[in-house]
Specification:
The protein has about 300 residues and is an alpha/beta fold. Helix content is about 35%, strand content about 25%. The longest helix has 16 residues. Bound molecules: adenosine-5'-diphosphate and magnesium ion (MG). Adenosine-5'-diphosphate binds next to helix 1.
Length: about 300
């Protein structure tokens, strides 16, 4: 059983609105699973269903191959740490006092708490009141609370939201160190760039549906970059392509043709040459991962 978490057609409806639509997520053991999608795409709702905080309308969640339900919930949650939406903690108490409350609730030894605090690098800040913490420190304290039980699975909902670049980098560093310790992490964001490089697997959702699941490399290779064509008669070339159902746009004396596969690109060149149009340049324009993500989540498809 290689997947620590799987969801089978997981769905949530509120009234007549479907906000999570038949999701089949696969989170391999030891992965940092980057769960990405625009605001309102159903990420938090999905994560709450993973934690059994929200009941699915249909489908199910499997943890280690076992269904998460009312009777297994306690057992599963004992090894899952989570941080959902805003960071927890009492502002008028110090970091140390907050951690003590968590320790008592979980009934764990001192060294679990100490290790959790060290992992998030808040060791020097524990005597400060939490309301004096920066947002980044609050997020890290929330993660320390989630880590105090020494979970095998950590579910973090938008931990980089609202952080400055240094705070985001701190979270990335933390995710890397957790992964190195063998913790499986599911982390969401509405901004690809905040987590794509630390994520070993990406799941991209939009309007509650899964658009892509796989590695960063797979996502890039699934993209069809634009082709830029330099030829002797661009207007004639554009007409020929249009007649075959291929759209193009003139741009600085070149023709831009979106979304061609290797074969389609070769066919286009053959067609133009056969029709007597000289082709002197064929260039593929690299898409950035951000372009691919935007195209996907804005409904452009790959
Ligand atoms: N308890 C609820 N009742 C009704 N609608 C909800 C509820 N929770 C979330 N939604 C709706 O479900 C959609 C997905 O929300 P959410 O899971 O929070 O998305 P995300 O975390 O990706 O921003 C949103 O349109 C939101 O308004
Ligand atoms: Mg959310």
């Amino acid at each position: 059983m290689n997947d620590l978490v799987r969801t089978i057609d997981l769905s949530k409806r509120y009234g007549r609105r479907t906000v999570v639509d038949r999701l089949n997520l696969r989170v391999p053991r030891g992965a940092v699973y980057g769960f990405l999608g625009p605001n309102g795409s159903g990420k938090s709702t999905t994560m709450k269903m993973l934690l059994s905080l929200v009941q699915p309308s249909a489908g199910q969640v499997l943890i280690g191959g076992e269904p998460m339900n009312r009777s297994t919930r306690r057992r599963h949650l004992a090894h899952i740490g989570s941080l959902i939406e805003s960071p927890p903690g009492y502002g008028h108490l110090t970091g140390a006092e907050n951690m003590r409350i968590v320790q008592r609730l979980l009934d764990v030894p001192d060294r679990y708490v100490k290790d959790a605090v060290d992992t998030v690098r808040l060791g020097g800040q524990m005597d400060k009141r939490v309301r004096e913490y920066s947002l980044g420190m609050k997020q890290r304290l929330g993660i320390a609370m989630a880590l105090a039980r020494r979970p095998s699975l950590l579910v973090l909902d938008e931990p980089t939201n609202g952080l400055d670049p240094a705070g985001i980098e701190e979270i990335r560093r933390l995710l890397r160190s957790l992964a190195a310790d063998g913790v499986t992490v599911i982390v969401s964001s509405h901004l690809l760039g905040e987590i794509d490089r630390v994520a070993t697997v990406l799941g991209i959702v939009s309007h509650g549906g899964l658009l892509f699941q796989g590695t960063r490399t797979e996502l890039m290779s699934a993209s069809a970059p634009d082709t830029l064509l330099g030829c002797s008669d661009p207007p004639a070339a554009a007409r020929l392509l249009f007649a075959r159902g291929t759209a193009s746009a003139r741009e600085h004396g070149l023709l831009r043709v979106p979304g061609l596969s290797r074969q389609a690109r070769a066919d286009v060149v053959t067609l133009l040459v056969r029709e007597g149009i000289g082709v002197h340049e064929v260039r593929q324009e690299e898409q950035t991962l951000e372009d691919v993500f935007m195209a996907l989540t804005q409904g452009g498809g790959l």
